[in-house]
Amino acid sequence: MLQTRRGTLYTGITTDVERRCAEHEAGRGAKALRGKGPLVLMHWEWVGDHGDALRLEAAIKRLSALEKRRWLAARSSADAVR
């Protein structure tokens, strides 16, 4: 999940987070992110297979902005406990 300069959250899937972030920063990624940098990587996680990743992405995209921030906060809290 990336955050734009204005605080908008963008969710996507990839097999290579570093490469994909670089593509987005260079303007070669999603059209929704072009000209909206700098971008900040807010969260990434390994998800089983491609189908699982697509389902998680779809579920996150259905959330409101506030719900996405709560989701992020819950993930960050869980990571801090580990």
UniProtKB/TrEMBL annotation:
Protein name: GIY-YIG nuclease family protein
Domain of life: Bacteria
Pfam families xref list: GIY-YIG
PROSITE patterns: GIY_YIG
Residues in coiled coil: none
Domain GIY-YIG: 1-73
Protein family membership: Belongs to the UPF0213 family.
Source organism of the structure: Larsenimonas suaedae
